[in-house]
């Protein structure tokens, strides 16, 4: 059964955000999958996920997104 579509944004403190980035960087360096919980849902990102950085600009703000993309069948869950 397919999971329902989802689009959430979770705000973290600086300490929480940097801890998540460190865990992600450690997993990437080790060639391992990464596991994270976002807004109550646990996600399993495979080691071979693709990575990109996206920058958006409007008249009153700028946004930088670090994106990880994978196919659900690759996650093994």
In short:
The chain has 1 helix and 4 strands; from the N terminus they run αββββ.
β-strand number: 4
Question: How many strands, which pairing sense, and closed or not: the largest β-sheet?
Answer: 2 strands, antiparallel
Number of helices: 1
Secondary-structure-based class equals alpha+beta
- How would you sum up the global shape? globular
How are the strands ordered across the major sheet? 1-2
* Beta content: 25-35%
The helix content, as a percent range, equals 10-25%
Count up the domains.
1
What is the element string, with H for helices and E for strands?
HEEEE
Give the overall average pLDDT.
Answer: 89
Output the radius of gyration.
Answer: 14 Å
End-to-end distance, in Å?
Answer: 12 Å
| Unreliable stretches | none
Please supply descriptive tags for the structure shown above:
1 helix, 77 residues, alpha+beta, two-stranded antiparallel sheet, two-stranded antiparallel ribbon
Notes on the structure:
The two termini are 12 Å apart. This protein is globular. 1% of the residues are buried. The chain has one helix at residues 14-30; strands spanning 34-38, 41-45, 50-57, 62-69. It is an alpha+beta fold and 77 residues long. The strands form two sheets. A two-stranded antiparallel sheet has the order 1-2. A two-stranded antiparallel ribbon has the order 3-4. 22% of the residues lie in helices and 34% in strands. It has one domain (14-75).
């Amino acid at each position: 059964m397919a999971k329902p579509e989802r689009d959430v944004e979770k705000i973290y403190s600086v300490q929480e955000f940097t801890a998540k980035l460190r865990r992600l960087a450690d997993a990437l360096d080790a060639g391992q999958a990464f596991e994270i919980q976002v807004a109550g849902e646990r996600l399993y990102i495979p080691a071979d996920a693709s990575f990109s950085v996206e920058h958006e600009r409007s008249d009153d703000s700028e946004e930088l997104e670090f994106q990880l993309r994978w196919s659900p069948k690759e996650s093994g869950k």
